[in-house]
Amino acid sequence: MNSKIKNKNIIAVRNLKKEFKEQKRGSGIKESFKSLFRRNYELKSALKGVNLNIKEGEVLGLIGPNGAGKSTLIKIMTGVLHPTSGETDILGFTPWKDRVKYVSNIGVVFGQKSQLWWDIPALDTFELHRELYNIPKDEFIKRRDYMIEKLGIQEIVKKQVRQLSLGERMRCEVVLSLLHNPKIVFLDEPTIGLDIIAKDKIRDFIREFNEKQNTTFIITTHDMSDIEELCERIVIINHGGIVYDGLLKEVRNKFAHKKIIDCKFLKKVNGKELKIKNCNIIAKNEYEVTFELDTKNSKIPDLIYFLIKTFGEDIDDVDIRDPPIEEIIKLIYGLKEE
Amino acid sequence: MSKFRGMFKTAAKENLAYKFDMMLTVILAPISIIIFYFLWKAIFLNNATGIIGGLTFEQIITYYVLTWLIAILTWTDIGDIISYDVKNGNITKNLILPISYLTHCFVYNLGSRFISLFVEAAPIVILSFIFFNIQIELASLPFFILSTILALLLNFLMTAVFALSAFWMTNNRGILKLKRVFVHFLSGAVLPLSFFPLAYQKISFYLPFQYLEYTPIGFWLGLYEGNQTFIMLGMQVVWVIIFYILCLLIWRRAITKAVSVGI
Is B256 in contact with A119 (Cβ distance < 8 A)? Predict the structure, then answer.
C-alpha cells in the first residue's frame, strides 16, 4: 500500500487514436515479385480512443495480449510516436510535441531493447546520462552507488555490456532509467527472462523507489506475478481499447464467477459419486478431486453440504480458493470485441 | 553543452573499444595510397609531357593523399545509422533521450572523427611528409581547417537529407548507394575537377558537390587567392545553411511517420 498517493493526476490521456497503414501481401517468391508492382494497404487501428488517468505515486500494471495496443500506447506516452488523434497531458507536456523537454522527466526501460551502449561498460553509459540529463555530480554519484549496491552489481557495471547475461544487463538498465530521478518510469517487461532471485531484487527495488521517491511506475508485463507483487491497479488493453481499469483484487469479482475446490479423501472415490450440478471436475486421482464451481448458478455451501452428505467422515481436507489470476486474464483476453 | 560533451566522449570510447579493428584502420589508407602511387607512376611512364589533366605526377599524388585526408576527416555513417535505426525500430531508444536525434548523431559523428584524427589522419600526414614530400603553406592552414569543418557539416547534413527517406521507405539503402556513387564522383574525390569537362567545372561552382572534397583540397594546394578564398568559404556556408534548413523541414515530417517495429 502506498499511502502517499495524492489525488494529483499526472497523466491524462483523452480519446487517443492511432492508425497504421499496413502492407497486405502473400508469402512466397511469386507474391514478393507481385508486391513490387502492386501493393495493397490496409488501415489498421491500433488504438481506438483510449482514456486513461494516472495519479502521482501509483504503480500501474498495463497488461494485454500481444498486438493489443499496449506498446503503441507506451510509445505515444513516451513521446516516440505521434498519435492519429486525441490528447495526452503528462506533467503538463504533450509528449510528442515537447519531446526533448518532456523526456528529461521520465525514465524508460524497454526489456527487449537495450538503452546501454553495447561496446562500453554500463558505468560509461551512466556517465553519459549524467551529462545528457544534467545531473549534479554528487547527487549522481550518491544515487548511482546506492542503486548499484542495492542490486548487487558492483562488478557487473565495469564489464563491457555485450558480455553481460540478460539478467545482469536488465539490472543495469533499471539503474540507468532511474539515474535522473524521473517522476514517471515506464517499464516494459522489466523482468523478462530473469531468474526468481533477480526478479525479486528488481521488484523490491521498484517498490522501494516508489515508496521513497513517490515515483510513478507504469509496468507492462506478461508475468502476472510482477503485477501481483507490485500493482494495486491494473489496466487491461485488448483490441485497441481498455477493457478493464481498476483494482487488481476486483478483477476477479468482475470477470471470474468461479471457485476452485480441492478435496482430499481417506478412501478411493470413483466418478459416479461425484456428479454434481454446475460443478466441473478439472483434476482427479484416486484420493483427490479438484472441482470448479460456477458461482453464478451454484453456491459453495451446496457443494459442501453435498460432500459431507456423500462422504461424511471420509473427507480428509477441503481447500476453497480463487482461480489463479492467469486464468482470469486468459478469460479476459479471450473475450470477443464488442 | 554538457550533453554534447557526454555524447562526444561516449563516441570516442566506443571507437576505441576494438584494438585489432583500429590497427587495421591505421594501415588501410597508407596501403591504398601506395597502390595509387604505383598506378599513376605507370600511367605517367607512358606520357611524354609529364602532365595529365594539367597536373604533374607529384601534384596528382598530393591530390590523392589529400582526398584520403578529407574523406577521413569528413566521413559520416549517419546514412547507415538512420537506416538501421528506422528499419529495426532502434530509433525508439534514441527518441527517449533528452537530445534531438540528429544532434545526437552529429555529436557522435564528431566524436568518432576526433579519434580518426589521431588514428587515421595523423599517420597519413606523417607518412606523406616523409615519403611524398607533401607541403603546405602555413598561411593556407587556417583556411584549410575551416573549409574542412564546413565540408564535414555539409557532408553530414547532405547525407542526413537522403537518409531520412528511410522514414517513408523503411529500406533506403538503394538511395544511399546511388547518392554515395554520384557525390563521390562529382565532389572530385575520384579525379580532380580539372579532369572534368569545362562545362561541369563551371556549373560545379553552383552545385554543392565540390564543396565536400575539392574545395578544402584547393585550400591546402593554395588554389584560391584574394577574394576567391572568401567566395569559396561563403559558398560552403550557403550550402550548409540550405541543407540545414532542408534537414529540419524533412525531419519534422519524418518524425510523424515513425513506426517502430515491436517495442
Answer: no
- Candidates B1, B97, B167, B253, partner chain A, best to mutate (most A CBs within 10 A): B97
Chain B's closest residue to A84, CA to CA, is B256
CA torsion angle B39 B41 B44 B45 (round to 10):
-110
- Range from A15-24, A179-188, B135-144, B185-194 that averages highest in pLDDT: A179-188
Chain A segment 47-76 residues within 8 A of B by beta carbon are 71, 74-75
Helices (H) then strands (E): counts for chain B: 13, 2
Range list of β-strands (E), chain A: 9-24, 40-55, 59-63, 85-90, 106-110, 184-188, 216-220, 233-238, 241-247, 258-265, 279-284, 288-294, 315-321
Shortest alpha-carbon distance between residue A296 and chain B (Å) = 40
Residue B148: CB partners within 8 Å, gap ≥ 6? B70, B73, B74, B216
Contact B96 A112 (CB under 8 A): no
Please report the ipTM that was assigned to this predicted complex.
0.78
Contact present, A194 and A125 (Cβ < 8 Å): no
Cβ–Cβ under 8 Å, residues A157 and A196: no
Interchain proximity B263–A124, CB inside 8 Å: no
Global confidence as pTM: 0.82
pLDDT digits (tens, 9 = 90+) for B107-150: 999 999 999 998 889 988 888 888 888 877 888 899 999 999 99
Nearest to A100 among B5, B98, B256 (CB): B98
For B29-46, the pLDDT digits (tens) are: 888 888 988 998 998 988
